[in-house]
Design brief:
The chain is an all-beta fold and 70 residues long. It has strands at residues 4-13, 26-27, 41-50. The radius of gyration is 15 Å and the shape is elongated.
Length: 70
């Protein structure tokens, strides 16, 4: 709704425990594409914001797909 926003961020790493070797969070582009990730793990976060406390932002979901690298 007007006056609200949804932002998606992601970061990646090659260890199952998040540590300083993981990348910093980066905002996902409008088209949702993240290219050339060469990591085993991906974490995302969603920021919901409103300037009108009578309206809530809406997040309907996320789709993640990848090709296995040999």
């Amino acid at each position: 709704p007007e006056g609200t926003s949804v932002k998606i961020f992601c970061r990646t790493g090659n260890t199952s425990l998040i540590d300083k070797r993981w990348t910093a969070f980066s905002e996902v582009t409008v088209n949702g594409s993240i290219l050339a990730i060469k990591a085993r793990y991906l974490q995302f976060k969603v920021e919901l914001q409103t300037t009108d406390f009578n309206k809530s932002p809406v997040f309907k979901g996320i789709k993640i797909s990848a090709k296995a690298v040999k």
